[in-house]
Amino acid sequence: MNHVLDRANTDVVLIVDDVPDNLSVLHDALDESGYTVLVATSGEAALQRAAQAVPDIVLLDAMMPGIDGFEVAKRLKASPATAHVPIIFMTGLTETEHLVAALDAGGVDYVTKPIKPKEVLARMGVHMQGARQARQTRNALDAFGYASITVRPSDGRLMWQTTLARDLLLAYFGTSSPETPAPILEWLRRHLPDAQRNIEPPKLTADLGSRRLTIRLHQQTGDDDWLIVMRECSDDAVIESMSLAFKLTAKEAEVLYWVVKGKINRDIGDILGSSPATVKKHMERIFVKMGVETRTAAASMAMNRIRQLHPQFEG
Protein backbone atom coordinates (compact mmCIF):
# COMPACT_ATOMS: atom_id res chain seq x y z
CA MET A 1 0.00 0.00 0.00
CA ASN A 2 1.83 3.09 -1.18
CA HIS A 3 -0.67 5.83 -0.37
CA VAL A 4 -0.60 7.66 2.93
CA LEU A 5 -3.19 6.30 5.34
CA ASP A 6 -5.73 8.80 6.62
CA ARG A 7 -5.39 8.27 10.36
CA ALA A 8 -7.69 11.10 11.36
CA ASN A 9 -10.84 9.30 10.29
CA THR A 10 -10.05 5.60 10.35
CA ASP A 11 -8.23 2.99 12.38
CA VAL A 12 -5.90 0.62 10.58
CA VAL A 13 -6.09 -3.11 11.32
CA LEU A 14 -3.49 -5.57 10.05
CA ILE A 15 -4.78 -9.14 9.59
CA VAL A 16 -2.07 -11.81 9.42
CA ASP A 17 -3.05 -15.30 8.23
CA ASP A 18 -1.43 -17.72 5.79
CA VAL A 19 -4.90 -18.67 4.47
CA PRO A 20 -6.55 -15.25 4.02
CA ASP A 21 -9.58 -16.76 2.24
CA ASN A 22 -10.61 -18.11 5.64
CA LEU A 23 -10.94 -14.53 6.82
CA SER A 24 -12.93 -12.98 3.98
CA VAL A 25 -16.03 -12.64 6.18
CA LEU A 26 -13.96 -10.93 8.88
CA HIS A 27 -12.33 -8.66 6.28
CA ASP A 28 -15.77 -7.57 5.01
CA ALA A 29 -17.10 -7.00 8.54
CA LEU A 30 -14.12 -4.82 9.46
CA ASP A 31 -14.37 -2.89 6.20
CA GLU A 32 -18.08 -2.21 6.80
CA SER A 33 -17.28 -1.07 10.35
CA GLY A 34 -15.01 1.65 9.01
CA TYR A 35 -11.58 0.09 9.52
CA THR A 36 -8.83 0.31 6.93
CA VAL A 37 -7.85 -3.33 6.48
CA LEU A 38 -4.34 -4.50 5.57
CA VAL A 39 -3.58 -8.18 4.98
CA ALA A 40 -0.35 -10.17 5.25
CA THR A 41 -0.06 -13.87 4.41
CA SER A 42 3.17 -14.66 6.25
CA GLY A 43 5.13 -13.58 9.29
CA GLU A 44 7.78 -11.94 7.10
CA ALA A 45 5.16 -9.96 5.17
CA ALA A 46 3.46 -8.93 8.43
CA LEU A 47 6.67 -7.42 9.81
CA GLN A 48 7.34 -5.59 6.54
CA ARG A 49 3.79 -4.26 6.35
CA ALA A 50 3.83 -3.10 9.98
CA ALA A 51 7.11 -1.26 9.36
CA GLN A 52 5.69 0.51 6.29
CA ALA A 53 2.40 1.58 7.86
CA VAL A 54 2.18 1.08 11.61
CA PRO A 55 -1.27 -0.42 12.28
CA ASP A 56 -3.52 0.57 15.16
CA ILE A 57 -4.26 -3.08 15.99
CA VAL A 58 -3.10 -6.51 14.73
CA LEU A 59 -5.16 -9.70 14.33
CA LEU A 60 -2.54 -12.40 14.25
CA ASP A 61 -2.80 -16.08 13.31
CA ALA A 62 -0.79 -18.08 15.84
CA MET A 63 0.23 -21.05 13.67
CA MET A 64 1.91 -20.17 10.37
CA PRO A 65 4.79 -21.75 8.43
CA GLY A 66 8.11 -19.89 8.64
CA ILE A 67 7.91 -17.13 11.24
CA ASP A 68 4.89 -18.09 13.36
CA GLY A 69 2.54 -15.69 15.11
CA PHE A 70 4.30 -15.93 18.46
CA GLU A 71 7.60 -14.81 16.90
CA VAL A 72 5.88 -12.03 14.91
CA ALA A 73 4.35 -10.71 18.15
CA LYS A 74 7.69 -10.78 19.97
CA ARG A 75 9.37 -8.82 17.16
CA LEU A 76 6.57 -6.25 16.97
CA LYS A 77 6.80 -5.74 20.73
CA ALA A 78 10.61 -5.47 20.55
CA SER A 79 10.44 -2.53 18.12
CA PRO A 80 9.73 0.91 19.63
CA ALA A 81 7.75 1.78 16.48
CA THR A 82 5.21 -1.00 17.05
CA ALA A 83 5.56 -1.93 20.74
CA HIS A 84 2.40 0.01 21.64
CA VAL A 85 0.17 -1.75 19.05
CA PRO A 86 -2.38 -4.15 20.61
CA ILE A 87 -2.17 -7.71 19.25
CA ILE A 88 -5.12 -10.12 19.28
CA PHE A 89 -4.22 -13.71 18.48
CA MET A 90 -6.45 -15.85 16.28
CA THR A 91 -6.03 -19.50 17.08
CA GLY A 92 -7.72 -22.83 16.47
CA LEU A 93 -5.90 -24.18 19.49
CA THR A 94 -7.38 -23.78 22.94
CA GLU A 95 -4.72 -25.71 24.86
CA THR A 96 -3.60 -23.71 27.86
CA GLU A 97 0.04 -23.64 26.82
CA HIS A 98 -0.80 -21.98 23.49
CA LEU A 99 -2.91 -19.31 25.16
CA VAL A 100 -0.14 -18.68 27.69
CA ALA A 101 2.38 -18.49 24.82
CA ALA A 102 0.18 -15.96 23.02
CA LEU A 103 -0.01 -13.69 26.05
CA ASP A 104 3.68 -14.16 26.86
CA ALA A 105 4.55 -13.12 23.30
CA GLY A 106 2.79 -9.80 23.84
CA GLY A 107 -0.82 -10.52 22.89
CA VAL A 108 -3.51 -8.63 24.79
CA ASP A 109 -6.28 -11.08 23.89
CA TYR A 110 -7.20 -14.05 21.69
CA VAL A 111 -10.16 -15.31 19.66
CA THR A 112 -10.71 -18.89 18.56
CA LYS A 113 -11.36 -20.18 15.07
CA PRO A 114 -13.74 -20.43 13.35
CA ILE A 115 -13.74 -16.65 13.61
CA LYS A 116 -16.96 -14.89 14.62
CA PRO A 117 -16.75 -11.31 13.27
CA LYS A 118 -19.04 -9.80 15.95
CA GLU A 119 -16.90 -11.27 18.71
CA VAL A 120 -13.71 -9.98 17.07
CA LEU A 121 -15.16 -6.48 16.63
CA ALA A 122 -16.23 -6.41 20.27
CA ARG A 123 -12.78 -7.48 21.49
CA MET A 124 -11.08 -4.99 19.17
CA GLY A 125 -13.30 -2.19 20.47
CA VAL A 126 -12.13 -2.79 24.03
CA HIS A 127 -8.43 -2.69 23.13
CA MET A 128 -8.73 0.07 20.53
CA GLN A 129 -10.18 2.49 23.07
CA GLY A 130 -7.01 2.46 25.16
CA ALA A 131 -4.78 2.54 22.07
CA ARG A 132 -6.75 5.43 20.59
CA GLN A 133 -6.49 7.49 23.80
CA ALA A 134 -2.74 6.84 23.96
CA ARG A 135 -2.35 7.90 20.31
CA GLN A 136 -4.35 11.10 20.84
CA THR A 137 -2.21 11.93 23.87
CA ARG A 138 1.02 11.41 21.91
CA ASN A 139 -0.23 13.45 18.93
CA ALA A 140 -1.23 16.33 21.21
CA LEU A 141 2.14 16.27 22.95
CA ASP A 142 4.01 16.21 19.62
CA ALA A 143 2.01 19.19 18.38
CA PHE A 144 3.26 21.28 21.29
CA GLY A 145 6.91 20.29 20.89
CA TYR A 146 7.03 17.71 23.66
CA ALA A 147 8.96 14.49 23.05
CA SER A 148 7.51 11.36 24.61
CA ILE A 149 8.70 7.86 25.45
CA THR A 150 7.07 4.83 27.04
CA VAL A 151 9.17 2.89 29.56
CA ARG A 152 8.56 -0.42 31.32
CA PRO A 153 10.13 -0.08 34.78
CA SER A 154 10.17 -3.84 35.53
CA ASP A 155 12.79 -4.63 32.87
CA GLY A 156 13.93 -1.09 32.06
CA ARG A 157 12.90 -1.39 28.44
CA LEU A 158 12.15 1.64 26.29
CA MET A 159 8.94 0.46 24.61
CA TRP A 160 8.12 3.43 22.36
CA GLN A 161 9.50 6.82 21.41
CA THR A 162 8.82 9.75 19.10
CA THR A 163 11.45 10.83 16.57
CA LEU A 164 12.26 13.94 18.62
CA ALA A 165 12.64 11.80 21.75
CA ARG A 166 15.11 9.51 19.98
CA ASP A 167 17.28 12.51 19.02
CA LEU A 168 17.14 14.03 22.51
CA LEU A 169 18.03 10.78 24.31
CA LEU A 170 21.01 10.29 22.02
CA ALA A 171 22.20 13.89 22.49
CA TYR A 172 21.77 14.07 26.28
CA PHE A 173 22.45 10.49 27.38
CA GLY A 174 24.18 8.79 24.42
CA THR A 175 21.64 5.95 24.48
CA SER A 176 19.30 4.49 21.88
CA SER A 177 16.30 2.17 21.94
CA PRO A 178 15.55 -0.25 23.53
CA GLU A 179 17.86 1.06 26.28
CA THR A 180 16.34 3.53 28.72
CA PRO A 181 18.95 6.04 29.99
CA ALA A 182 20.03 5.01 33.51
CA PRO A 183 19.18 8.38 35.16
CA ILE A 184 15.62 8.27 33.75
CA LEU A 185 15.08 4.65 34.77
CA GLU A 186 16.47 5.26 38.25
CA TRP A 187 14.24 8.35 38.66
CA LEU A 188 11.18 6.44 37.43
CA ARG A 189 11.73 3.46 39.72
CA ARG A 190 12.45 5.69 42.72
CA HIS A 191 9.18 7.61 42.34
CA LEU A 192 7.00 4.74 41.13
CA PRO A 193 5.24 4.16 44.50
CA ASP A 194 4.11 7.81 44.55
CA ALA A 195 3.12 7.74 40.87
CA GLN A 196 0.96 4.68 41.47
CA ARG A 197 -0.90 6.72 44.10
CA ASN A 198 -1.36 9.54 41.55
CA ILE A 199 1.27 11.76 43.21
CA GLU A 200 3.32 13.43 40.48
CA PRO A 201 7.06 13.06 41.15
CA PRO A 202 9.47 16.00 40.89
CA LYS A 203 10.76 16.75 37.41
CA LEU A 204 14.12 15.38 36.30
CA THR A 205 16.47 17.69 34.44
CA ALA A 206 19.56 17.07 32.30
CA ASP A 207 21.93 19.75 31.02
CA LEU A 208 23.90 19.88 27.79
CA GLY A 209 25.86 23.12 27.56
CA SER A 210 23.29 25.94 27.42
CA ARG A 211 20.52 23.44 26.67
CA ARG A 212 18.38 21.85 29.34
CA LEU A 213 16.04 18.87 29.11
CA THR A 214 13.11 18.69 31.52
CA ILE A 215 11.61 15.22 32.05
CA ARG A 216 8.33 14.48 33.78
CA LEU A 217 6.08 11.51 34.32
CA HIS A 218 2.83 11.88 32.40
CA GLN A 219 0.66 8.80 32.97
CA GLN A 220 0.47 5.03 33.09
CA THR A 221 -0.40 3.66 29.64
CA GLY A 222 -0.61 -0.07 30.31
CA ASP A 223 -0.28 -2.60 33.08
CA ASP A 224 3.41 -1.80 33.50
CA ASP A 225 4.18 0.96 30.98
CA TRP A 226 4.61 4.64 31.80
CA LEU A 227 4.49 7.60 29.44
CA ILE A 228 7.31 10.07 30.08
CA VAL A 229 7.30 13.53 28.53
CA MET A 230 10.42 15.56 27.75
CA ARG A 231 10.91 19.13 26.65
CA GLU A 232 14.09 20.94 25.76
CA CYS A 233 14.64 24.56 26.66
CA SER A 234 17.54 26.73 25.55
CA ASP A 235 18.06 30.44 25.13
CA ASP A 236 17.80 29.97 21.36
CA ALA A 237 14.48 28.15 21.69
CA VAL A 238 13.03 30.90 23.91
CA ILE A 239 14.21 33.66 21.54
CA GLU A 240 12.74 31.83 18.54
CA SER A 241 9.45 31.36 20.40
CA MET A 242 9.23 35.10 21.10
CA SER A 243 10.02 35.90 17.49
CA LEU A 244 7.17 33.69 16.30
CA ALA A 245 4.71 34.70 19.02
CA PHE A 246 5.04 38.46 18.51
CA LYS A 247 6.17 38.54 14.84
CA LEU A 248 9.55 40.03 15.77
CA THR A 249 12.77 39.95 13.77
CA ALA A 250 15.54 37.76 15.19
CA LYS A 251 17.36 40.84 16.53
CA GLU A 252 14.18 42.28 18.10
CA ALA A 253 13.48 38.93 19.78
CA GLU A 254 17.03 38.92 21.20
CA VAL A 255 16.54 42.45 22.59
CA LEU A 256 13.21 41.45 24.15
CA TYR A 257 14.83 38.34 25.67
CA TRP A 258 17.38 40.49 27.52
CA VAL A 259 14.63 42.92 28.59
CA VAL A 260 12.86 39.94 30.19
CA LYS A 261 16.19 39.15 31.89
CA GLY A 262 16.10 42.64 33.43
CA LYS A 263 18.89 44.26 31.37
CA ILE A 264 18.92 47.99 30.53
CA ASN A 265 19.56 49.26 26.97
CA ARG A 266 23.25 49.94 27.57
CA ASP A 267 23.83 46.38 28.84
CA ILE A 268 21.83 44.91 25.95
CA GLY A 269 23.92 46.95 23.52
CA ASP A 270 27.13 45.55 25.08
CA ILE A 271 25.81 41.97 24.89
CA LEU A 272 24.62 42.27 21.26
CA GLY A 273 27.41 44.51 20.00
CA SER A 274 25.00 47.38 19.24
CA SER A 275 24.79 51.00 20.40
CA PRO A 276 22.19 51.96 23.03
CA ALA A 277 20.50 54.10 20.34
CA THR A 278 20.08 51.04 18.10
CA VAL A 279 18.65 49.04 20.99
CA LYS A 280 16.23 51.94 21.67
CA LYS A 281 15.02 51.78 18.04
CA HIS A 282 14.49 48.03 18.36
CA MET A 283 12.51 48.63 21.55
CA GLU A 284 10.24 51.15 19.80
CA ARG A 285 9.43 48.62 17.06
CA ILE A 286 8.87 45.89 19.71
CA PHE A 287 6.37 48.14 21.55
CA VAL A 288 4.40 48.72 18.34
CA LYS A 289 4.30 45.03 17.40
CA MET A 290 3.29 43.93 20.90
CA GLY A 291 0.78 46.78 21.38
CA VAL A 292 2.38 48.02 24.61
CA GLU A 293 3.89 51.31 25.75
CA THR A 294 6.44 50.36 28.42
CA ARG A 295 9.27 47.87 28.75
CA THR A 296 7.62 46.55 31.94
CA ALA A 297 4.47 45.69 29.97
CA ALA A 298 6.54 44.14 27.16
CA ALA A 299 8.55 42.07 29.63
CA SER A 300 5.40 40.92 31.44
CA MET A 301 3.63 39.89 28.21
CA ALA A 302 6.74 38.10 26.94
CA MET A 303 7.24 36.31 30.26
CA ASN A 304 3.65 35.05 30.28
CA ARG A 305 4.08 33.63 26.78
CA ILE A 306 7.45 32.08 27.60
CA ARG A 307 6.01 30.35 30.68
CA GLN A 308 3.29 28.82 28.49
CA LEU A 309 5.77 27.50 25.95
CA HIS A 310 8.79 26.84 28.21
CA PRO A 311 7.53 26.12 31.75
CA GLN A 312 11.06 25.48 33.01
CA PHE A 313 12.39 28.89 31.88
CA GLU A 314 13.84 31.03 34.64
CA GLY A 315 13.64 34.74 33.97
From TrEMBL:
- Residues that the record marks as modified (4-aspartylphosphate) are 61
Q: Which Gene3D superfamilies does this chain map to?
A: 3.40.50.2300, Winged helix-like DNA-binding domain superfamily/Winged helix DNA-binding domain
Q: Name the GO cellular-component terms.
A: cytosol; protein-DNA complex
Keyword annotations from UniProtKB, A to Z: DNA-binding, Phosphoprotein, Transcription, Transcription regulation, Two-component regulatory system
Q: Which residues form the Response regulatory domain?
A: 12-128
Q: Which domain of life is it from?
A: Bacteria
* Any one GO BP annotation for this protein: regulation of DNA-templated transcription
UniProt domain HTH luxR-type: residue ranges: 241-306
Task: Tell me the GO molecular function terms.
Answer: phosphorelay response regulator activity; transcription cis-regulatory region binding
Q: Which InterPro entries match?
A: CheY-like_superfamily (IPR011006), Sig_transdc_resp-reg_C-effctor (IPR016032), Sig_transdc_resp-reg_receiver (IPR001789), Tscrpt_reg_LuxR_C (IPR000792), WalR-like (IPR039420), WH-like_DNA-bd_sf (IPR036388)
From the Swiss-Prot or TrEMBL record, give the protein name. Answer: Response regulator transcription factor
